[in-house]
């Protein structure tokens, strides 16, 4: 069955709610967890699930993403029909860019049809989770479904951000509403609703027909959740697959996060530092693959005045050196430097960040290659921070990539 399956990863979204982290990169290319890019989680799921024919549909500021795919994911052999191929908009069907999830795939329908696949797995490249897609494919075939949608319970208070479904005892979807204002709770749980995870398995013939039909509908927004799925429920077997119920090598942690905002992104990173992380990156049965730079090991070293550094419940990327500074409950990517008497707490520092002597960072995200001046304080006065940087609703201060403190204070 796996050799008859084509996988499509939607990776072209703007990610405006993650600005400024998406000012120069696509959302799936945003760094995560001290070592990875967001898309690595979806790609690793494909790798471990045995899916080896993958198209990554790119669009918005895609250079960083394409470079990461080249450097970290050139692992399959095209000679035996294995590949991970980025597909930018080509305007083969008109003069428009991708205008919706369904339209992005419709514009590349010729790639689907010439693949000779019987099934199409459609995934988003901007979620953090581990999942065995092979088990979902088996469920799809055994149910005789034309479309299967992965789902999970979400709190009713946040359910209006998702596609919400109702299912019968046979797991057939009987109703589907995209981002409803008043979500319908689960029959046996008034505090949760059943939400789509944006993971779809289609029979190829059904997907091809529906995409062609949808392209001719002027009233359609060309979106799976808003248009295609609601139309199919009454005419085809559309099933719900419960996330976390699959068997296979992956440990069942049932962790899935949409890191679409600064606050959700920050929280998902901090989840990795919990005493018992809800997503444990150290489990050997489902490792997350990524590009690894050729850096020396991370190191703690005394500062010039002889002060020893302190590291408390934090992650350090390769090549990072703490020279007599203090790092608490933080995630530092590769080649970060923390100087003497500097304090970094509850923060995320991307590659190449340097924290000067005596600087103090609290609840910050510092993008790549920023040099924090000696004595600088960020994260303590949100009013002052907001005059220079982005401050999220929960008070996370984000310093953009390559920010120059000297230039911006002249």
Descriptive report:
With 410 residues, the protein is an alpha/beta fold. The chain has 2 domains: 2-271, Alpha-Beta Complex (Spore Coat Polysaccharide Biosynthesis Protein SpsA, Chain A), CATH 3.90.550; 299-409, Hexapeptide repeat proteins (UDP N-Acetylglucosamine Acyltransferase, domain 1, 3 Solenoid). Helix content is 20%, strand content 27%. It has 9 helices and 29 strands. The strands form 7 sheets. A 7-stranded mixed β-sheet has the order 5-4-1-6-11-8-12. Strands 16-19-22-25-29-28 form a 6-stranded mixed β-sheet. A 5-stranded parallel β-sheet has the order 14-17-20-23-26, with no helix packed on it. Strand 9 (163-167) and strand 10 (173-178) form a beta hairpin. The termini are far apart.
**What average pLDDT do the residues reach?**
92
CATH A-level architecture of the largest domain: Alpha-Beta Complex
Detail the poorly predicted runs: none
Shape: elongated
When the domains are counted, the total is 2
